[in-house]
Amino acid sequence: MSHDLGTAPLLGLRANVAQFSLLVVVNALVGGMLGQERTVLPLLAEYVFGLSSYTAALTYILAFGLAKAATNYLAGIWSERHGRKPVLVAGWVVALPVPLLLIWATDWWMVVAANVLLGISQGLTWSTTVIMKIDLVGPRRRGLALGINESAGYLAVAVTALLTGRIAAEAGLRPEPFLVGIAYAALGLGLSTLLVRETRGHADHEAVQAEGPASRVSDREVFVRTSLRDPALSSASQAGLVNNLNDGLAWGLFAVLFASVGLDIGHVGLLVAAYPAVWGIGQLATGALSDRWGRKPLIVGGMLLQSVALGLVAAVGSAGWWLLAAVLLGVGTAMVYPTLLAVIGDVAHPSWRARAVGVYRLWRDLGFAVGALMAGVLADLWGVRGAVWAVAAVTAASGLVVVLRMPETHRRAGPS
Q1: Choice among 26-30, 131-135, 297-301 with the minimum mean pLDDT
Q2: Cystine design at 249: which of 78, 268, 375, 404 (Cβ 3.0–4.6 Å)?
Q3: Candidate CATH numbers 3.40.50.1240, 3.40.50.620, 1.20.1250.20, 3.10.580.10; the one for domain 17-210+217-405
């Protein structure tokens, strides 16, 4: 698709600040839909549904991860074929019944079903807000843009986890905490339908300006390049998977571990919220820093810091030390999360970038499923602390893979 000079869309954060800001708000609501579960669902599994096996209790995270991973891949393909906005709106429609199912669930399979829908919704909505922001800002400030996007989403996860924990401490585990999710879903659908504008034209315009010909690349070739062949893309994909393996462990087991020493729901909610809060705030800085310093140093440092933080979680047993570990884990994740997405934007040609983002997010969010399964099995075998130690070791190994295999991808890396 070509544009003449009179109709070509402008690229850049400042030129698109209104739509960009709206998409930040929308992604905060997407994150809030995830945050409604972080404190409450692990406690529901234990105290309401009486699930004594960690493997059984974490089935909802396994279902969420598999559904989200598959939908991420499809979202990238569909957003290129049908446009970004229809995919975003469809994701919010799928989100509407999630809090209702969590309120009405009488058997654990209903909770698992709700998380299948939540995974589909998150795959459609979060993937699309990422793609749309990459479309709008162009190549110069991609790290900053993605840092803002991910910051909004994970700050909302933290705030909502803290809020629903407080509500649960005062009013019980159901239904009041999930009324927040109903409000988020309704507002997200309304904003996406009425105010968000299509951004595919921005990507088409950037593709015309991009260096090198925009030859047709098949879906299979994009998958192979992003998963295996390209050293930068594949290194980012494995690091993303391990990063979310951490998060699946934290989501499923941290609340149970913190409650096991006698902390009440309010204090558990505070500790659970601290990690995504620091993660969210930190990305405001780390995304921009990756535009100045390059991607690789932040990714390697972040993965190794996550490993240290997880080891601290496993080694200590008091709220103060756990708070420090949560802060360190949040800092490490903030260094990695927007930077990996920026790597994909750096390397993938605009003509197939949305599909590359979808493949990367497929692998990244499979980490939820792998983390839930691994954490559940290891916690049943070795206890919660043993599971955390094992994931800390895997995270350190992932950082070393990046050291050995990933080249620097940002053209402006180094002193300005």
Answers
A1: 131-135
A2: 375
A3: 1.20.1250.20
- Coil, helix or strand for 415? coil
Reading the block at residue 184, the tokens are 């988020």
Query: 124, 104, 136: which is closest to 203 by C-alpha?
Result: 136
Average of per-residue pLDDT across 166-177:
89
Tell which residue, 115, 151, 129, has the closest CA to residue 34.
115
Position 156: which residue type? A
* Side-chain half-sphere exposure of 257, counting CA atoms within 13 A: 28
* Amino acid, single-letter form, for residue 8: A
| pLDDT at 215 (0 to 100) | 58
Residue-wise DSSP of 212-272: S------HHHHHHIIIIISHHHHHHHHHHHHHHHHHHHIIIIIHHHHHTTT--HHHHHHHH
* Whole-angstrom distance, CA of residue 326 vs CA of residue 317: 13
Sign of the alpha-carbon torsion through 341, 395, 301, 399: negative
Cβ–Cβ under 8 Å, residues 285 and 331: no
Please state, in angstroms and rounded to a whole number, the distance separating the CA atoms of residues 190 and 182.
Answer: 13
3-state secondary structure of 120: helix
Determine what percent of the chain is predicted with pLDDT higher than 90.
47
Q: pLDDT class for 395, splitting at 50, 70, 90? A: very high
Cα 368 to Cα 63: distance, rounded to the nearest angstrom: 9
Q: Is the dihedral of CA 74, 80, 81, 85 positive or negative?
A: positive
Rounded-to-integer distance, Cα 176 and Cα 335, Å:
34
Q: What is the DSSP string of 53-84?
A: -HHHHTHHHHHHHHHHHHHHHHHHHHHHHH-H
DSSP 191: H
